[in-house]
Amino acid sequence: MKKNCDVAENKFRPLKKELQTVWKIIKNSVSIDQFPEQERLDVFLALSRVMVSYPGFGDQNYKAYIRVCDEMYENFVQKDLVAFQNSFLKLKEIRHDCHEMYRF
After folding, report:
1. Which residue intervals of the chain are DSSP H helices?
2. Average pLDDT of 42-59?
3. Contact in structure between 91 and 72 (CB atoms under 8 Å)
4. For residue 8, what is the domain's CATH number?
5. 3 vs 49, which has greater pLDDT?
6. How far, in Å, CA of 30 to CA of 48, rounded?
7. For the chain, how many structural domains are there in total?
8. Mean pLDDT over all residues of the chain?
9. How far is CA 64 from CA 39, 43, 61, 71, in A?
10. Which residues contact residue 81 at a Cβ distance below 8 angstroms, ignoring those fewer than 6 apart?
């Protein structure tokens, strides 16, 4: 358990803070019916892939999380705003469920 605590303190928490910053930007875009800038979405997706590489912090949610990230990106590429917003809402639900289980 000590190893997980060290990883959480030294790597996972800083990563989560970066993700939180980009998440808010995407959330704001979605709330005003706009796509986020591609650079912001790319950063979010890259950080998300790093996040799911850490075992012990919600592994059971990682597969669904990445599937919806991929779906959201595809909706972005297709310029389907409604589908993008729906994917964002799915991601928000997965994120919420995981955070409820793994608050640290």
Report:
1. 2-7, 13-31, 38-51, 59-77, 81-101
2. 89
3. yes
4. 1.20.120
5. 49
6. 18
7. 1
8. 87
9. 23, 19, 6, 10
10. 33, 34, 35, 75
